[in-house]
Write a structure and sequence with these properties.
By secondary structure, this protein is of the alpha/beta class. Helices cover about 60% and strands about 10% of the residues.
Length: about 210
């Protein structure tokens, strides 16, 4: 293959990759547009639940696996530090960060209990559990929800793919934010936007943020 052919092939590859990337942007934007209608009401309900808990001296416990663990830590950091306005820190704990606790529970009891035992120890009536899973079927998150319900906590579940086992475990007073999609990346992209909406809404209620 000559130099001209190499250049042509490289140009075609670049154009193909650029279109592939643009396709991801279009798919994400389309889903977010659809979710603006479908999810605004449950997200608003979740904001009210979380703000009421924080106003009453409660806290928000957050858990998830993999990318959802990163989202859990992102959300708790936004509350503990700040989101977009200067305001006092808010009580939130990501149950995904203490490696000694996670490995001790995983080693002694099994990975399915790594969040459940933390909720049992830290959760109190009036607190909120924010439970994240793109599939809705993460066993350790489902068990954390069970522990939260037993402790008198409200639950906000952030899922996809129809909600899975998590959706089935929610009580009427809990909140389900379920992204209507099957692709993990797209679900996670909407989850992140939903978390930012939660942060903004909590600040608006508690501090009058514009």
């Amino acid at each position: 293959m000559g130099h001209a052919e190499d250049i042509a092939q490289g140009t075609q590859l670049q154009a193909g990759l650029a279109e592939r990337v643009a396709g991801h942007f279009r798919a994400s934007a389309s889903l977010k547009s659809d979710c603006a209608q479908a999810l605004s009401a449950p997200i608003a309900q979740a904001i009210r639940v979380m703000a009421a808990s924080l106003q009453a001296g409660g806290k928000i416990l957050v858990c998830g696996n993999g990318g959802s663990a990163a989202d859990a830590q992102h959300f708790s950091a936004e509350l503990l530090n700040r989101f977009e306005v200067e305001r006092p820190p808010l009580a939130a704990i990501a149950l995904t960060t203490d490696t000694s606790t996670l490995t001790a529970i995983g080693n002694d009891y099994g990975y399915d209990q790594v969040f459940e035992k933390q909720v049992q120890a830290l959760g109190r009536t009036g607190d909120v559990l924010l439970a994240l899973s793109t599939s809705g079927n993460s066993a350790n998150v489902v068990l954390a929800m069970r522990a939260a319900s037993a402790a008198g906590m409200r639950i906000v579940a952030l899922t996809g793919r129809g909600g899975g086992k998590m959706g089935e475990k929610l009580a009427p007073e809990d909140v389900h934010i379920c992204v209507p999609h099957a692709v993990t990346a797209r679900i996670q992209e909407v989850h992140l936007l939903a978390l930012h909406c939660l942060c903004d809404g909590i600040d608006a209620i508690l501090f009058g943020a514009k």
